[in-house]
Amino acid sequence: MEAMDGAARCLEALRLQGRICNCRPLEFNTRLLEVATSVGSKMLVRRVRLRLADIYTALGDNNAAAKLKRTAATYVAPTCARCREPLAETAEPLAALPCAHIVHHA
After folding, report:
1. Euclidean distance between CA atoms 5 and 64, whole angstroms
2. Is 45 exposed, middle or buried (0-12, 13-18, 19+ CB in 10 A)?
3. Do 94 and 87 touch, CB atoms closer than 8 A?
4. d(CA 31, CA 37)
5. Which residues of 3-38 are buried (b: 16+ CB within 10 A; e: fewer)?
6. Which domains are assigned to the chain?
7. What residues contact 89, with CB distance under 8 A and at least 6 apart?
8. Residue 9 in 3-state DSSP?
9. What does the entry list under GO cellular component (predicted)?
10. pLDDT higher at 1 or 35
11. What is the pLDDT of residues 36-90, one digit of tens each?
């Protein structure tokens, strides 16, 4: 999924540069959203929904963009089970407790 997300970000960059049309990033991100939803990767679902909202805004479909932004807002960032601080979306050392809670490694 990380590789697919990287490809989606590259397509988005090309779209913003005007080197490709909106159709390929729209199709790829829609498929990535299906995969991320089926796996249960909530943060990836949130990122893809926001990316799709930007594409729909560029296409002039503000209703679809607003709907995607509203649904993306329902996904809140996960927090550390110990300190209650949000876990970063960037790579950081994490640890899993035997009860399946995720905490900062430190």
Report:
1. 21
2. buried
3. yes
4. 10
5. ebbeebeebbeebeeeeeeeeebbebbeebbeebee
6. 2-75 (1.25.40), 77-106 (no CATH)
7. 43, 47, 77
8. helix
9. neuromuscular junction; plasma membrane
10. 35
11. 999 888 888 989 999 999 999 999 999 999 999 999 888 776 777 888 787 766 6
pLDDT(2) > 90: no
Three-state DSSP at 40 gives: coil
Residue 98, SS3 per DSSP: coil
Which range (3-7, 50-54, 93-97) has the least confidence? 93-97
Cite the beta strand spans of the chain per DSSP E. 94-96, 102-104
CA distances from 6 to 43, 74, 96 (A): 14, 23, 25
For residue 76, the one-letter residue type is V
Cα maximum dimension of the chain? 49
Predicted model pTM: 0.72
